[in-house]
Amino acid sequence: MKTLSGIIRLLIFSFLILACSHNSKLQRGQFQSREIVNRTTEEMLNHYQNAIYLEGDFQLERLEKDQWSISTGTEDLRHTFLISGFDSPADINMEINSVYYLENGLLLNNNLFLGVEGNIDSRLQKDLEHLTSMNNSIRHHKIGKLVHLWSPGDDPDFKQPTPQELRARINRIDGHDGDCEQGGEGATSCSVTSSTGSGCSVSCGSGYYACCNETAFGPNDCHCHSDTDQNVID
């Protein structure tokens, strides 16, 4: 009996250690997933700017009433996706185990598609049908802006952006007046990658153009600029 009791205590202790270790990893903003590339997706993903397919564990956080962030990390890169400007009230609070990023939309768990309004062309529609195996029950939401941020997974200086920093990235709008390294007036999307391997991309809905700049210090800048110089409606 003493031996059995000792084994049980050891198992409980081991479980607590693993749980604490997992929670510590989540608190540091480092999440585990893996990038999936196979014959059925490789050619498709090459159609899109910085497209990626991830499976694993994700952190979903509501920043404001219709602003969300989805974060994860692989052995190579850490990813954050920012979503805002839903066409209707949306609650996407769910456990996420897979994400397709297709430049102008995110497919979550193969059953919820968040597409940037005005940027969904016939090719994306066709690819979406293929990815979901013609699933007629898939839910659709139109969104106004989609930002993808990435950073090398082994960067010791990397810090998971705070909710305040993420809100600022979603809402940022200023007077570039077309002064963008990538994108500019008339562009619906753009992307920039720095020499350190970090980068960002953005897709902007109707009424905005995409603007991307590499910054000398801190994270790169990818945001949507209003065509009419009015405030962003989120």
Automatic annotation (TrEMBL):
This is Lipoprotein. It comes from Leptobacterium flavescens.
